[in-house]
Write a structure and sequence with these properties.
This protein has 246 residues and is mainly alpha-helical. It contains eleven helices and no strands. Helix content is 80%, strand content 0%. The chain starts with a helix and ends with a helix. This is Probable membrane transporter protein.
Length: 246
Amino acid sequence: MFDTALLLTAAFVAGALNSVAGGGSFLTLPALVFTGVPPVVANATGTVALLPGYAAGAWGFREDTEPPPGLSMKLLVVLSLIGGAAGAGLLLVTSNDLFSIIVPWLLLAATLLFALGPKLREWTAGGKPSTAKATAGVLIVAAYGGYFNGGLGILLLALFGLLGQTNLNAMNGLKNWVSALLTAIAVAIYAAGGVVLWPQALMMMVAATLGGYGGARVARRIPAPWLRGGIVLTGLVMTAIFFYRQ
């Protein structure tokens, strides 16, 4: 009963967090690991659980979504699917021991990049990114998302900011659409590889979906600095927990 309550609560809050600005796997991954699930399986299962939450969050931001400069929606769809498939395939050949070592560093990098997002945009201001650079950026982040979902939204927001987007709600809507696409193809590969615990994934899906839609509607009314500060704090806390576990 305690494990079930923990997983449902983590999934609900993660769905809301993902719809706001990302970082939901900062909660689902530790919750699954705490209940005894091996790290690689926990990452895959948590990713499956958050898929409908991404879709619900995207629908919640539907009035605001628009592509970043230099990319079309059609190209974003293709890049998201290709990158997500590549990352998911890489996860299937990664051992639990190696993944446990990599996780805290990935979390730390994602959190720091998001925290420095405004400064990075200032440093890169003045020039328009080419389609080639934008394409490479989306492919790399999508592959990261297919491999390790933690901090995916944070990286996508940082990327869209570097590509010239400034409206946080528009960035959030696009982030959720891209996350849903790359996660969908990754989930298919995880399922084929047999690394998903479906009982946990299915019940967490319901909670994440409710949290995703509700979070998106509420987030549109919250000041951007508050959102950014809360996400950075969540990322730092979860990073510290995983380093401590090592």
